[in-house]
Design goal:
Elements: H1 4-20, H2 26-39, H3 45-51, H4 54-72, H5 75-86, H6 91-109, H7 112-130, H8 135-148, H9 157-166, H10 170-202, H11 221-240, H12 248-263, H13 267-273, H14 276-294, H15 297-309, H16 312-327, H17 332-343, H18 353-365, H19 375-386, H20 393-420
Helix pairs in contact: 1-2, 1-14, 2-14, 3-14, 4-12, 4-13, 4-14, 5-7, 6-7, 6-8, 6-10, 7-8, 7-19, 8-10, 8-19, 9-17, 10-18, 10-20, 11-12, 14-17, 15-17, 16-18, 16-20, 17-18, 18-20
Length: 421
């Protein structure tokens, strides 16, 4: 008789291979994996529901709705025009502002695909008006969104999953990740300046101030104002809600529900535009990892890795680089889920902060390696191509891996300093 453990491993690896080789979409492959586990009797329906973390799904859905609705009423175009005017349309300054604003939005909103796409489309519109090549701005925005995904408990799928598993509040997670986040963003900005300074310094923008006013791009002033107030309220809720027993998922769904009520007829297209594929994929991947956990695979993996992770300096470096390099070539969500379950079985989980910090940093830094390393990369590159500006896989790989290696090396030094302190 075939061991259930072996079958669970085979199904998980099969799903991984289908995703990695591009033979099936993530949603299709992960759903097929769960279906197979049910048919083979390796999981029951009760266990399937047990392994799904509904607060994580609620957070994803709520934040996506909020950011989609804000984009629909002109928030991102309004913000982009303000950025251009603040920089006096200087290309180098605009790139810096786009990086910082994108990082800030990602830290509090977590909808990395929505933010990367919205900010990139705005940057392309502004670049067209100024007669500039938008690709340096788009690359800077995407890289910033990926890197800043490590910053808070709601900034990206890996950190949402890690914070949920550890039961960390928004501020507790920020306290753990502020140093590597600032170091990574600093390294990113330094390398962006070194890479694009000459090109952007030679550029001659058509205007020194945008020819349209920020207020002219707002499609509905009432919804815009209400949405902005609710968005700020959501950010405050993420920070203080756990102190009152309110989980981030509940805060996001409440905010989204109020926005949809205010939006009226605008609500229907917003709901349709939610990335339901991502939501379903995350749910299915949680079940797949749960099957590995049930049949002892995760416990075996934890036993193998434990000796190498016990020492803070060695464990930090190993987890950081392993996470960054693997996440540069394949989707970081299933990898993160597997590592979370593995590290959770270590003897000193509470004292293993260096491992969790390295996992969060590595999975986000690796997202800049290739086009397929993150959803944000794929969606934004497609959007840029439709506008007539090609960013090829080889070109992205050449630029992206340089950034992955440099930012990971700088972050490693910071993490080692924290571990040694």
């Amino acid at each position: 008789m075939i061991s259930p453990k072996l079958v669970a491993i085979t199904v998980f690896l099969g799903v991984y291979i289908l995703i990695m080789l591009g033979l099936r979409e993530l949603t299709v492959a992960s759903m097929a994996g769960v279906t197979l586990l049910l048919l083979l009797g390796l999981l029951s329906w009760e266990e399937v529901w047990h392994f799904i973390e509904f607060d994580v799904l609620a957070l994803l859905i709520g934040v996506m709705i909020v950011m989609r609705l804000m984009g629909q009423v002109g928030f991102f175009r309004w913000l982009g025009i303000h950025i251009a005017n603040l920089a006096k349309c200087d290309p180098l300054k605009m790139m810096v502002f786009f990086v910082l604003i994108s990082a800030l939005l990602t830290g509090f909103a977590g909808a990395t695909v929505v933010i990367a796409l919205a900010m990139s489309l705005v940057a392309m519109d502004i670049a067209d008006m100024l007669e500039l090549d938008p690709r340096p701005f788009v690359i800077a925005i995407v890289f910033s969104v990926n890197v800043s995904g490590m910053s808070t408990s709601v900034s990206s799928l890996p950190t949402i999953l890690i914070a949920s598993r550890l039961g960390m509040t928004f501020w507790e997670f920020c306290a753990m990740m502020w140093a590597p986040t600032l170091a990574s963003l600093g390294a990113l900005l330094a390398l962006l300046m070194a890479t694009y300074r000459a090109e952007l310094s030679r550029a001659k923008p058509r205007f020194r101030r945008m020819p349209i006013s920020p207020s002219s791009v707002i499609t509905d002033r009432r919804i815009f104002t209400v949405s902005l107030v609710l968005f700020v309220g959501m950010m405050v809720g993420f920070a203080v809600g756990p102190s009152f027993g309110i989980k981030p998922g509940a805060i996001a769904v409440i905010t989204a529900s109020i926005m949809l009520l205010v939006a009226g007829k605008r609500a229907e297209p917003v709901i349709r535009e939610v990335d339901w594929e991502t939501v379903i994929s995350v749910a299915c991947l949680l079940v797949l990892v749960g099957a590995l956990q049930k049949h002892g695979v995760i416990a075996d993996l934890a036993a193998v890795m434990a000796p190498y992770l016990a020492h803070e300096l060695t464990g930090t470096t190993l987890v950081l680089w392993l996470s960054a390099l693997i996440s540069a070539f394949i989707d970081n969500v299933p990898f993160t889920m597997t590592m979370i379950s593995t590290f959770s079985l270590l003897d000193d989980e509470e004292g293993a902060e260096h491992i969790w910090r390295a996992l969060a940093a590595g999975t986000c830094l690796g997202g800049n390696g290739t086009i397929i390393a993150s959803y944000a990369n794929i969606v934004v590159v497609r959007a840029v191509s439709r506008k007539g500006y090609r960013i090829g896989p080889k070109s992205f790989l050449k630029t992206g891996m340089k950034f992955v290696l440099f930012t990971t090396a700088v972050t490693n030094l910071v993490l080692l300093a924290l571990a040694a302190s």
